[in-house]
Amino acid sequence: MEHSHEESVSALLASYREIGGINHLDAANLPSKSDIAAICSELLQLLFPGFFAEEVITAAELPMITAEHVASVRGRLCAELGRSLRYKHGDAKDHRTESARICQEFFRSLPAVRKLLQTDVEAAYQGDPAALCPDEIILAYPGLEAIAIQRLAHVLYRDEVPLIPRMMTEWAHGRTGIDMHPGAQIGSHFFIDHGTGVVIGETCEIGSHVKLYQGVGLVARSLAAGQGLKGKKRHPTLEDHVTVYAGSTIVGGDTVIGKNSTIGANTFVMKSVPPDTLLVPGEQVQRTHNKKIRRGDASGDGTEFTI
Predict the structure, then answer these.
(1) Could you tell me if 90 and 188 lie in one domain?
(2) Among 90, 98, 257, 280, which residue's Cβ finds the most Cβ atoms within 10 Å?
(3) Which residues contact 46 (CB under 8 A, 6 or more apart)?
(4) Per the domain annotation, does 1 fall within a domain?
């Protein structure tokens, strides 16, 4: 028998009454996904003027165009911040003063974000001989786009803005295949090569001059404790000048990959790795400066001897 329109509506209404937790009714509007997407797109134009515009932007036009973009983003962002703050505080107030303060601090941060992104472009160009020029990296490399949005979202995350930072990084995730939590702390000269399948958790700490390849996971151990782990260090730390090759997974909040170390492809790491180490899947750790090899498992256990 054909399911009528009225029966469909009645069945859904009954579901709404019976199944809680996935309805948002009789409450303030949540931030808009489409508006957050538009904000992210326009922010990329502010970060990289001339790269994403449909027409040529001259130096003479730049002040006017920048003022227009700032006004547009500020208006949209303040409106979305108001929605986010109403959700946070559980009230119907407009939170105009707090939204304006957060907006002001956000725009003050943009020059510093641009300075970091310049180092990221430099790292990508110096680290990838396939790159024709820095312009190609800005226009075509998904890693840079994901990093740019994460660095912006991190500013709002630090200000304890709910919902919006994660919506921003998930917008980039959908476009690039790179899943970076806005809470991750990332130093300068960060390069994600290829990028598809990279996952970087909320409490990751990443130093400067770090390079990741596709499929790398910087993740937590089993989350059986669920919300009991909120606010705790759950994800690994990578010190300066670390390289992690494709398909490797590094697990745990107390796991530290020491500076100048390299993690080989398809390696599963659950324990800290000392500085100046080459960790190869399965068996060996080589300390490049003191010329020692440790044989054991990929977690770093085993017997060490000099060569």
Answers:
(1) no
(2) 257
(3) 66, 69, 70, 73, 110
(4) no
pLDDT for position 295:
44
Domain that holds residue 219: 184-223+230-307
Do both 146 and 106 map to the same domain? yes
pTM to 2 decimals?
0.89
pLDDT in tens, 151-206: 999 999 999 999 999 999 999 999 999 999 999 999 999 999 999 999 999 999 99
d(CA 202, CA 149): 15
Q: Specify the CATH number for the domain of residue 107.
A: 1.10.3130.10
146 and 40 share one domain: yes
Q: What angle do CA 105, 110, 116 make, to 5 degrees?
A: 130
Of 67, 217, 37, 187, nearest to 119 by C-alpha is 187
Q: Looking at residue 54, what is its pLDDT?
A: 81
25 is written with which tokens? 């009714």
Position 18 in a domain:
no
Residues 126, 56, single domain; the answer is yes
Residues 182 and 157 sit within 8 Å (Cβ to Cβ): yes
Do residues 85 and 98 touch, judged by C-beta distance below 8 A? yes
- Are 99 and 234 found together in one domain? no
Backbone φ, ψ for residue 185 (5° rounding): -100, 120
If asked whether residues 171 and 257 sit together in one domain, one would say: no
First to last CA, the chain: 79
